[in-house]
Amino acid sequence: MAAAGLKQVSAKLWEMPQPLGNFAGELLTRGRSYYQAFQIIAEQEQPGLSYPAYFLLAHAVEVILKSYLAFKGVSKREMGRKPFGHDIDYIFSECERRGLVITDELMKPLAKGLAHINQDHDLRYPTGFNLSIAGPKHCTSSVDALIAAIAPVVEQAASIAQIRYIAETRHLRGKAKIQWSD
Is 172 exposed, middle or buried (0-12, 13-18, 19+ CB in 10 A)? Predict the structure, then answer.
């Protein structure tokens, strides 16, 4: 049995699209890392760190939500384009439309708020925008609830994808390199 889309590029190089379950797991891991960095910076309570901290939070939420979309079958290409892009409010709504249930009632307003403060790249670049969002301590319970809802299904999909990948490419182990084609 050959992995879906596995193509030989050269004697020692093969390519295949990254399984979405694998990609979903990597997104979740990366999103958790950005979230942890947000928490570390937010604890410092130093002037001038609010914009970087909330940029990390916005990116963490975006990437965690996109891990759910990948689990649900949305391709990398689709997620990189409009209407997805970096629109956290839209991404959150699309996750809900696809079955995500978050019991924390502050998550939806947080997603809207992060989308608003990030819509014109105000967190990345000086635009004269005055940052107005709930303090870090008010955000963590919502993001923790988001991770708690998403992690079990994404981690399971990532494990299944990894097992399939290993089984489908075992004939190449030690003989060739496999890289993602997407």
Answer: middle
> pTM of the predicted model, to two decimals?
0.90
pLDDT digits (tens, 9 = 90+) for 105-154: 889 999 998 888 887 777 777 777 667 776 777 889 999 999 999 999 99
pLDDT at residue 134, as a whole number? 67
What are the structure tokens assigned to 34, written together?
């950005």
| Three-class SS state of 99 | coil
Please, which residues have CB within 8 angstroms of residue 103's CB and are 6 or more apart in sequence?
A: 145, 149
| Alpha carbon 144 to its chain's center | 14
Residue 90 corresponds to which tokens in the numbers above? 């839209």
- Strand order of the sheet with strand 7-10? 7-10, 13-16, 177-180
Phi-psi label, residue 116: left if phi above 0, alpha if psi -120 to 50, beta otherwise:
alpha
- Residue ranges in the chain modelled with pLDDT below 50: none
Contacts 24+ apart (CB under 8 A), 43-52: 43/136, 50/131, 51/123, 51/131
Phi and psi torsions of 14, nearest 5°: -125, 150
The pLDDT assigned to 74 comes to: 96
